[in-house]
Known about the structure:
Blueprint: E1 8-12, E2 15-19, E3 27-31, H1 37-40, H2 43-66, E4 71-84, E5 90-104, H3 108-118, H4 123-128, E6 134-143
Parallel strand pairs: 5-6
Antiparallel strand pairs: 1-2, 2-3, 4-5
Amino acid sequence: xxxxxxxxxxxxxxxxxxxxxxxxxxxxxxxxxxxxxxxxxxxxxxxxxxxxxxxxxxxxxxxxxxxxxxxxxxxxxxxxxxxxxxxxxxxxxxxxxxxxxxxxxxxxxxxxxxxxxxxxxxxxxxxxxxxxxxxxxxxxxxxxx
Length: 145
């Protein structure tokens, strides 16, 4: 049996309201009023990239905390390669997540195991694997106490 999550969206007059049902992020409002049409493009791609980054970084943080790794300063970017499919429809063709984290040098061995695990992605990016190629570049910057 699988779990279910429902998110709803309503729109009108250039305002999109996404109700997530979550405590931390209960609602996302995208207000296009007064924004030129050419500047409205890309919002969904940015949301996809943002959701992917949040998922990846939160999984990385949880994995490091669970293993008592001394770390700080997780930073990540998502780069989307855009193009068209065989039918000529716009698609995200590839996503590359680049992530860095400062890790205490004494925890390098444990970090390397986490790094290997993170190469499989997180819930969101792992769910995208079948549809688009995903790459993960997770690099530590080691520090000494």
